[in-house]
Design brief:
This protein has 337 residues and is an alpha/beta fold. It folds into two domains: 2-63, Phospho-2-dehydro-3-deoxyheptonate aldolase, domain 1 (Alpha-Beta Plaits), CATH 3.30.70; 83-332, Alpha-Beta Barrel (TIM Barrel). Helix content is 34%, strand content 18%. The protein has eleven helices and 14 strands. The chain has an eight-stranded parallel barrel, surrounded by seven helices. Strands 2-3-1-4 form a four-stranded antiparallel beta sheet, with helices on one face. Strand 2 and strand 3 form a beta hairpin. Helix 3 (107-120) crosses helix 4. The protein is elongated, with a radius of gyration of 21 Å. The mean pLDDT is 92.
Length: 337
């Protein structure tokens, strides 16, 4: 249920509403807006139906949330959320780009890539330290050593870093080195992992699963939000269909659908969507045109010899050209990059 407080509601009245919700054994989530404070009461719907919150002082209205996903829905928060990561805003007018190699291979290569993507305008560095691979014999990442390289790259370039987590047992070491925790497509419905990541308070980049519906993606985000962490970024990275011309089928319609359903930022990963580097540029431009808040792009200094997904990685010079083109598209739709 959404409880909207009056403009002139006092702190005491707000506290009384919160105490009432807690006395019913329900969870409380407070959203402070510029004009209104909204309090979310999440839990047993029967208890909510039997309670008249509108009779409490300072309450303007109380409305049930009809969506199965409560905290991430636009019903709960009408205004689009802007997430702050190290002073960089995600979800506002400026479109953000996260770029870097699929996996961390060497400290030298990572730093070289970080410096080049920053020079082109990217404000975040991506790199996989723990790599989920279809084959157990493929390169699985450098683990903690790779995370340390990411930290060093941040110290030298100032770029906040993004890396994937696969196991709840790695949460402490991930949080030590990473600014944004990525939940990969294969773990979209790993509810134990989602719950534990939600407890960290770190910003989470949640990728859509290979065969996950948008509703299932939203419910997965709800697991994170239910732990008090609403710093969530959705990422569409292509879904599995009958088509074999590309690695996956990029569902660009997911952007406007998610924008209507949720207040949280939406990114597109054109690299994993296609598996082909030459398709990354046109799909990146299309993503910006349909309203994506950001892009996750793989960039590698030597794609031909990359240990992971070299075929979908852009060379730094190609990435630089793309960033220049994207600025024009962003301007055309009233945004910046």
């Amino acid at each position: 249920m959404i409880i909207v407080l009056k403009k002139d509601a006092t702190e005491e009245e707000k506290d009384n509403v919160i105490c009432k919700i807690k006395s019913l054994g329900l969870s409380v989530h407070v959203s402070e807006g510029e004009e209104r404070t909204i309090i979310g009461a999440i839990g047993d719907e029967a208890k909510l139906a039997q309670t008249s919150f509108e009779s409490l002082g300072g309450v303007e209205s109380a409305m049930p949330i009809t969506k199965p996903y409560k905290l991430v829905s636009r019903e709960f928060k009408h205004d689009s959320s802007v997430i702050d990561v190290d002073g960089i805003k995600i979800g506002g007018k400026k479109i953000q780009v996260i770029a870097g190699p699929c996996s961390v291979e060497t400290e030298e290569l990572l730093l070289d890539c970080a410096e080049k993507v920053k020079a082109s305008g990217a404000e975040f560095l991506r790199g996989g330290a723990f790599k989920p691979r279809t084959s157990p014999y493929s390169f699985q990442g450098l683990g903690e050593e790779g995370l340390k390289y990411m930290s060093e790259a941040k110290k030298k370039t100032g770029l906040p870093v993004v890396s994937e987590i696969m196991d709840p047992r790695d949460i402490d070491v991930i949080c030590e080195h990473v600014d944004i925790i990525q939940i990969g497509a294969r773990n979209m419905q790993n509810f134990r992992l989602l719950t534990e990541v939600g407890k960290t308070g770190k910003t989470v980049l949640l990728k859509r699963g290979l065969s996950g519906t948008i509703a299932e993606l939203l419910m997965s985000a709800e697991y994170i939000a239910s732990q008090g962490n609403s710093n969530i970024i959705f990422c569409e990275r292509g879904i599995r269909t009958f088509e074999t011309a590309t690695r996956n089928t990029l569902d660009l319609t997911a952007v406007p659908v998610l924008k209507e359903e949720t207040h949280l930022p939406v990114f597109i990963d054109p690299s994993h969507a296609t598996g082909k580097w030459h398709m990354v540029a046109p799909l990146s431009k299309a993503a910006v045109a349909v309203g994506a808040d950001g892009l996750l792009i793989e960039v590698h200094s030597d794609p031909a010899n990359a240990l992971c997904d070299g075929g979908q990685s852009l060379k730094p010079t190609t990435f630089d050209t793309l960033m220049k083109d994207l600025r024009k598209v962003a301007e055309a739709v009233g945004r910046t990059l």
